[in-house]
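User: Continuing from earlier, I have the next pair ready.

Assistant: Great, send them over.

User: Here they are, in order.

Assistant: Folding the first of the pair now:
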Amino acid sequence: MTYCIGMRLNQGLVFLSDSRTNAGVDQVGTFRKMSVFEHPGDRMLVMMTAGNLSISQAIRQIVAEHVDSDGRSIWNVTSMYDAARIVGEAVRTVHQREAKALAACGIDFNVSIILGGQIGVERCRLFQVYSAGNFIESHDENTYFQIGEAKYGKPIIDRVINPATSLDEAAKCALISMDSTLRSNISVGLPLDLLVYETERLAVTRFVTIDEKNQYFRMIRDTWGKQLKQVFEAIVDPVWNAAPEATSNVLSSANMHSKPVRVAIPEHAGRSGLAITPLQSLAQQFGSGEQH
């Protein structure tokens, strides 16, 4: 598995991908998932892939080399939409060639792709391409795409990123999102590829491959964890069974009458257990006897 993030912002684009591929706990490899199609001054496109590695590599090869009957290729189309169509056609070509043989071996045709960039005077655009070769485009209401193990790193992006976010802030957010995923899922791993593209440059603006020795990413890992814990500890504990007039930090109040769904005790279990007493506040449980 893998994890890739693509963000479209007013200032440009941010891409981040990991490089882990595994077919089991003892078959872990490192393969870079980000490919750059760059013709300085004319176009700069980035493609990131997740899913079956052999499928991804076959698609990348076709996209890089194929010219259709109309003479169109990734290197000469005049819009990012047409570039996305070429990627989608490559996905369908590989599906027609490989899907039946893979299915015979019990392997699904599994690939997801993020494609983004800028061609000529057209604005920056970002697409997600699916296993069927169809695709969707990012808009201001949804400024980013994730593929692979996306769930762990999604919350921080949802809270931080919007079209006005600066490129550096977006890159920082992407790295925090990746760190959250690295901590929670062993199928995602270093090194990482981070690419930042500033609109109208028509060439890669900034790029870095990040390993475990990278000073900034190590700082992110240490600082984010510590500050997240500090924020958590600064949030006050809940108040249970509070007086009806209480308005501060109330999780439950005396007039809520909340009850769990209790399963009836069967006859063979007997009824000699402890008597059920009313729920107590946290303060009462620790012996103060006072409501808080």
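And the other member of the pair:
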Amino acid sequence: MRQKHTISLLIIAVGAAAAAMLPLIWAAISALRPSAEIFRYLSPLSIHTFVPTEVTFQNLVALWSGPFARAMLNSALVTAITVALGLVICSMAAFALAALRYRGRGVVFAAMIISFLIPFDSIAVPLAQVFRDFNLQNSYAGLILPGIGNGLAVFLLRQFFLGIPRELAEAAMVDGLGWFGIFTRIYVPLSKPALIGAALILFVFQWQAYLWPLLIAPDPDYHVASVAIASFAGQYDVDYGQMFGGAVFTALLPMAVLLVFQRYFIASFATTGSKD
């Protein structure tokens, strides 16, 4: 009986995954169609909806020979730096909230919780004006800085750090180790799943960002992938072939990263529910 139940759940999971993948599959196939045939077989559905009658690589050649290639490099660079710097800042902030004892710690933690409950888009416009006042428009620093302090990543790490026995830190202090040494030599090595989970949060938030790069970096030399994809929709026409191709390529990298590190991501969130 249990085996039948497991098989049923597996079939449902596979079916749900296949349904979720259909739009991405259709977009990938559409990128290989001539522009005139992209929507030709969409209604009514038929075998040719997912099996093209004619395959062309013209859309992909035009995509990678244009500004999209630089935009992808910009996205990769900005995301990589954001993850590296963000992990350092978020982990240190989480350590201060979890291990140190000081007056007002609860207020700081509450402010941090509120910070990731407020949608970033609601403060993007005034924040962009502040960045312009500091001459950070059209710069990599302007693209990176808002992403390195992520409240959700801090919360995740803080909850994980609370599960590390405080006796370890106390024993290290008896041996003469300072707070920075306790952080780097005890907390960080024991927190691999949480650090990977926080890195994935920083990665996804930065990789999918659209409004902020659009506001702070209008110069095409600093466009990221999401902005470059939107540029395929002009005032009078839309290049759906290149748009779908760009969307597929920008989805492949986070998909691969999440598939590789999903067990660490799940393990990191499994430790956040019962600590205070």
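Worth noting for the second one:
Residues 68-98 form the longest helix (31 residues). The chain is about 70% helix and 0% strand.
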